[in-house]
Specification:
The chain is an all-alpha fold. It contains 3 helices and no strands. It has a domain at 7-50. It has helices at residues 15-25, 40-46, 60-63. The radius of gyration is 17 Å and the shape is elongated.
């Protein structure tokens, strides 16, 4: 199930707080044993681990 109401994640965001707020706002109450999966892309964005593609220069080996 997708959690509606999760805003665009920015560097430094508290993912647990964002997800918790979205669940509450949507009236969703996780039950014991429920799992919440988070995409690595979102975790990386919150950690500030993104790179602008136009700043990446491939090595000669990568271009082969």
């Amino acid at each position: 199930m997708r959690i509606p109401g999760v805003p665009l994640v920015q560097p430094g965001d508290d993912l647990a707080a964002l997800i918790s707020a979205a669940l509450r706002a949507g009236g969703v109450k996780p039950l014991a044993g429920d799992l919440i999966a988070v995409a690595q892309k979102i975790v990386s964005k919150a950690e500030g681990r993104s790179v602008r593609l136009d700043t990446v220069r491939p090595s000669a080996e990568a271009e082969d």
